[in-house]
Amino acid sequence: MEQQPGPVNWAVHNPRPAPGMIALWSWVAFGHGADTVCYFRWRQAPFAQEQMHAGLKRTDNSPSAAYAQVQQVKAELDKLNIKADDPLHYEVAIVSSTTNQWVTEIEQQGQSYQHQQVEFEYYHALRMLGLNVAFVSPEASLADYALVVVPTMPVISDAFIENCKQTTATLVFGPRSGSKTDEFQTPSNLAPGKLQQLIPVQVLSVETLRGDISETLHYEGETFHSNRWREELGASDSTKVLATYHDHSPAVVQAGNRVYVGTLGCADFTRALLEMLAKAAGLTTFTLPEDVRTVARGEYRLLFNYSADAVRVDGFEDREFVIGSNELPGYSYAVMKRG
């Protein structure tokens, strides 16, 4: 993938990256598994259609502002001896496929239901907890993960059901999962269809709400918001009710290591639910500021501050930092040894 070293030339507007962002983006790539970062381009072209696209060097061959940042990153990489085969420590998987998006777009049912937004909300909550997240296909093995999240999967195969039966990971299924057959019909045993082999629950009805309307959602003694897509659940007595709607009917149910979420909710609810499930699965979570992310690769853990403001990241005070510290200036990063 290309990494921009300055203003590009193809957007509606082409702002200059903030000071430090070239180095930060480079470390984000390496932290998430890149073995190479390529900057486009080496030298800004003085001719043709890309004259305005910045390079590491200007048209007169003098170093641009990004040049020193790339030199800095190279020196840091050499110091830490990060290798291309250093493993990524993925603890959580999000199961995703284009079929999920196609089905929910063909039968959207409510304009406020946007598949990519729903998937991103789960991802955002997991990353705010400091967890390494892999995106995997329904055909992938789930054996290496402690927590597997399926934001939605309307059409579920028999092979995926067997895959779920083989894993000890905590499985979380979002609304609409199992709601269609291969022929795009409602399952004869009602939604979530084949998922009833894993969780004894039925979807009795569905309502969709405007994006600016919500209902009360009760979870762990706190009040949150249920919104956009809300399913009426018929749960077996063998399931545990984790969250309820305003009328105290079940909204989230659990059977063993499997959880079915019958509603979309506010960001605070999604994060609170996933935090509880992650900790129960033996994972370590962190409380990160809104614009801070962390990732672990090889023997290191990295912190990234995407904000212009300096920020202190609690929970890392006693770590051994090799670059920076848990007090991050704006648009900066830090690297510590994993412990």
UniProtKB/TrEMBL annotation:
GO terms for cellular component: beta-galactosidase complex. The keyword Hydrolase applies. It is an enzyme of class 3 (hydrolase). It catalyses: Hydrolysis of terminal non-reducing beta-D-galactose residues in beta-D-galactosides. Residues 292-337 form the Beta-galactosidase C-terminal domain. The keyword Cell division does not apply. GO terms for biological process: galactose metabolic process. Its EC number is 3.2.1.23. Keywords: Glycosidase, Hydrolase, Metal-binding, Zinc. InterPro entries: Beta_galactosidase_C, Beta_galactosidase_Trimer, Class_I_gatase-like, GH, Glyco_hydro_42, Glyco_hydro_42_N, Glyco_hydro_b. Pfam families: Glyco_hydro_42 (PF02449), Glyco_hydro_42C (PF08533), Glyco_hydro_42M (PF08532). It comes from the Bacteria. GO terms for molecular function: beta-galactosidase activity; metal ion binding. Residues 1-80 form the Glycoside hydrolase family 42 N-terminal domain. Residues 91-283 form the Beta-galactosidase trimerisation domain. PANTHER family: BETA-GALACTOSIDASE GANA, BETA-GALACTOSIDASE YESZ. Belongs to the glycosyl hydrolase 42 family. This is beta-galactosidase. It comes from Salinimonas marina. The lineage of its organism: Bacteria, Pseudomonadati, Pseudomonadota, Gammaproteobacteria, Alteromonadales.
